[in-house]
Amino acid sequence: SQKIEQNSEALNIQEGKTATLTCNYTNYSPAYLQWYRQDPGRGPVFLLLIRENEKEKRKERLKVTFDTTLKQSLFHITASQPADSATYLCALEPGFQKLVFGTGTRLLVSP
Amino acid sequence: ETGVTQSPTHLIKTRGQQVTLRCSSQSGHNTVSWYQQALGQGPQFIFQYYREEENGRGNFPPRFSGLQFPNYSSELNVNALELDDSALYLCASSLARVRGGTDTQYFGPGTRLTVL
User: Which of B105, B106, B112 to substitute to test the interface with A, most A CBs within 10 Å?
Assistant: First the structure.
């Protein structure tokens, strides 16, 4: 069956360190993958999109990698700040703009 | 802020009732998608509307129905509410240049529905 898996346990890190979040998928062949941030009680906010022919994408302190052989994406936040604390969702698009989301990983950055 | 608005923000209903949730898409966007997000889960796709026509549906029963208006705003209707329908309902708008085209989706803040 098709699955998108993210670590359901919260990731706790100290301010200034790099946070690395993982997204693994099975039985999908996505043309691209997206990462969203969601704060409690709010809608997801789009962060980055990476296509299957791109190995890496960067935006300010954010970096995403996409390995279609391993069926995995890694999401990095460098020099993390307490304001980065949120839930991060990865999403695939199997077709017609329908997004299939993972369950999300909660990131807690302590000062 | 994405420019996508939803109303109401919170709603409490009882089992068996019907509910209508509303979404105003971002200016210039022609596609609205609806998602259901249960507590601790990722959003699940309900359906999508492109230029007033349904353009794909997820694994939800027919008591979940929708509509898109000429101004591209949208409604989600749920009949015969069940306890498991309690969730955050999200709409997302986007601009598809062709049916099924790809573009970034911009989410609204959601409507929190509680079914008692």
Answer: B105
